[in-house]
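ok posting inputs for the protoporphyrin IX containing FE job
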Amino acid sequence: MSERMMKAHRHSGCREDYTIHCDPNARYRTADGTCNNLDHPAWGAAMTSLARLIPSQYGDKRGTPRTLDKMNCSLPSARNISNTVHSEVSANPNHNGRNLSIVAMQWGQFLSHDLSFSSMSVGESLTLVNVCRKQCFTIEIPADDKHFDTNCMEMVRSRPTSDMGCNPDVREQINQATSFIDGSTVYGSSQEHQYFLRNHSQGLMNTGDGDLLPPASICDHAHSCQVAGDSRVNVVPCLAAAHLLFLREHNRIAKRLAELNCDWSDEELFQQSRKIVAAELQHITYNEYLPNVLGSEIMEMFLLTDKTSFQYQYLKDFLPSTTNVFATAAFRFGHSQIPTKQGTCWNESNLHEQRIETTFRNPSLLPRFTCGGINRWMLNTPAPESDRSLVDGVRDLLFLKNNSSFDLAALNIQRGRDHGLAPYNEWRRWAQLPVAKYFRVGDQGLVDHTQEAVDLLVKVYRSVDDIDLFTGALSEKHVTGGMVGPTFARLIGYQFLAYKYGDRFWYENKDPITRFTEDQLEEIKKIRLSTIMCLNSNSDSMPLDVFHTNNANWKPCDLLPQIDLSKWKK
Ligand code: HEM
Ligand SMILES: [Ca+2]
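and the output
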């Protein structure tokens, strides 16, 4: 990684201004990610700002949204762009050329919630719309819109760090989650929340009746009905199933460790189980998920995991924080893989599917959508192609309630402008890829686009320099073997490099205080997502590779690769 990139990356908000005391001999991560970096205790911690790779471009120099194009005219409306570029074009949205399953999409969302939480969820923000109108950044709806008959869609601006008493010269957004891949979706991103989620006996996490996620105290169609480490758990049933899977995995591990080590305290059992779960999340992400997203070229450059020994070297100068561009544009590529439906499948002859718009934050589905049923449905169902189009269920009908709804593509574009994200060409420059001068596919044009995509972009943008990053990069042709084009591939590749080399508690680290033993690490490197699904969702068998459909190779759970926890016997 070049010096240029490492330097540009330094910006971690003002949390370092507070005095954070670290114990250099602590064996486990803190709940909020502080003290991961002992020289900079706030790096990567929750409630610090998203990092910038290149300077922001707001309307003014300080932080008003980007609203004007290069000619000083209004930028096209985000909904207009969404209608023109991101509408559901494919005759069969449930199709991708590589047999990727819904599990691949779902891992992306679950993982993204471990890494960032900056924007306000629409449900939360609606109540705020009336309270603080000046914080709204409304999306204009074109008069000829095929779906909406109102003229605007409300969006509340993301919280700036000045809310926390920080006074940066330029507006920055807060990340409420820990940046590290540490299972903050399961354990929360603060000490208080973690305390609340723990059972405080035998290292266990709280569960609800029937070994489900614990219920929330208020529960109706507008409120969260289940509690987890991340409050977005109830968005769709498939996401809740992922949360439940890792909650059960934690308790499964804690129970086994308690059998092996009679004298371990609740704290020791909890922390060791949490450490193993975080290691599983990291291992699955870098070995099963990312190769499918980035293709072999970028993986081989930086990110491949060494199969056996301790090759890993922690880089203490590498800021691990989630970058603004990653959270606001690049890792939102997965929105184009969201399916039209959610489903559950009790057995081969008993399948239930319903349209996704009927499932957002819908507690009445809980009894029907069991964890095992959802997992079987996800791994048997192909995900839509990761391309420029989003299905109507989220592009017209996101968070449908009382005839009101949102457009996820438009929110992504508007969010980019809210965060002062520089436009597409600036990111091409950062990525050291050719910058476009003209709307054409050839020389000095949009060289990573098809003619069809260029034709759509030119319909909405006056200049190639105005193209919003989400729209420009999502409509690129994919890198070989990947789910994204070269611009997103480099941004995502760089971010996962930071999560790996900037994490002192990375699962392959060699520090005698925080590492696993070599025997233990060898066990962790056997893990596959299929094993975790099989062991925790009342299934008898699973295919080894759950990220693809049409998988003939189903195996009984005990023949899938297992972690031998006896290596943790003291
Ligand atoms: C059922 C599927 C999904 C739904 C309904 C959904 C919905 C949303 C919504 C409403 C937002 C906030 C939008 C805003 O106001 O700015 C959001 C943010 C985001 N989504 Fe998704 N999403 C889904 C799946 C995914 C997937 C598959 C990925 C990645 C592979 C992903 C990555 C992200 C990221 C990175 C953010 C920004 C998070 C933050 O920093 O606040 N999402 N999503
Ligand atoms: Ca995290």
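notes: The radius of gyration is 23 Å. The chain is about 35% helix and 5% strand.
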